Amino acid sequence: MNKKFLTEQDVRGLLPGSPCYVEAGTILTPLAREMADQRQNIIVECASAEELVRLKAYSRLVALGADNPGWILKEQLRPFLQDNGYQILDCGSSSREVVDYTDVALQVTSLLKAGKAHRGIVIDAVGTGSCMVANKVPGIRAANCYDRLTARSSREQNDANLLTLGGQLISFELATLIVSTWLNTPFAGGQQQKRISKIEEVEQQFLQATVVALPGDSSCAL
């Protein structure tokens, strides 16, 4: 059986900070490991080729939604993400028609909760309202980011799984920097995981006994 190798060139082809999926038994060349460390590409070993394909596909699934003030930025970001290899689940809006950010945020969070998307991005006028709504949903850690530092911190320290943006506050160029940083920054784990566990404990304390059903994802399309 031929052994598989991961080379420096393979790692160089990845976006900085993105996971590098390999099959079990793959040999990393010294230069590949050095390059992965420099670019913060975490090496994820998969038990089989089938698992590798499945994980690579799942990690590229992004639920994207916006209300009418955020619609233009959403339409600009969608092709940018697709050009970078992400598969987009479009949760609307589909035009400039008035839609509440609350509804859009819940469409995106419903996909995250159902395991149908790996990350979520919601855009409204300033990003605050969507962030508030999303953080009401158990298991969602939403962050309203406005520069690369807040994007990196929210992933590295808080393991945020949903990003909100202010469509009327930031340019497309800045948005691409924020989104790229946020999607490709790994969670630090360690001491930070202990703090995430405390967030989850607080969440459990205030959960009510009755379960409120989230709206379906019928309006979300690939």
Total domain count: 2
Strand order of the largest sheet: 6-5-7-9-8
CATH architecture of the largest domain: 3-Layer(aba) Sandwich
The total count of strands amounts to 9
Task: Provide the CATH superfamily of the largest domain.
Answer: Sugar-phosphate isomerase, RpiB/LacA/LacB
State the shape: globular
Overall radius of gyration:
18 Å
Q: At the third CATH level, what is the topology name of the largest domain?
A: Ribose 5-phosphate Isomerase B, Chain: A
CATH class of the largest domain, named: Alpha Beta
Going by helix content, strand content and strand pairing, the class is alpha/beta
Q: Mean pLDDT score, rounded?
A: 87
Q: Tally the helices: what do you get?
A: 9
Share of residues in helices: 40-55%
N to C succession of SSEs = EHEEHEHEHEHEHEHEHH
Q: Give the biggest sheet.
A: 5 strands, parallel
Give the low-pLDDT segments.
Answer: none
Distance between the termini: 39 Å
Strand content: 15-25%
The gist of it:
The chain is of the alpha/beta class.
What are the salient characteristics of this protein?
222 residues, alpha/beta, Ribose 5-phosphate Isomerase B, Chain: A, 2 domains, five-stranded parallel β-sheet, two-stranded parallel sheet, 9 strands, 43% helix, 16% strand, globular
Describe this structure in words.
The protein has 222 residues and is α/β, with parallel strands linked by helices. It folds into 2 domains: 5-57, no CATH class; 60-206, Ribose 5-phosphate Isomerase B, Chain: A, CATH 3.40.1400. It contains 9 helices and 9 strands. The strands form 3 sheets. The chain has a 5-stranded parallel β-sheet, sandwiched between helices. Strands 1-3 form a two-stranded parallel sheet. A two-stranded parallel sheet has the order 2-4. Helix 5 packs across helix 6 (128-134) and helix 7 runs parallel beside helix 8. The longest helix is centred in the C-terminal third of the chain and has 16 residues, at 191-206.
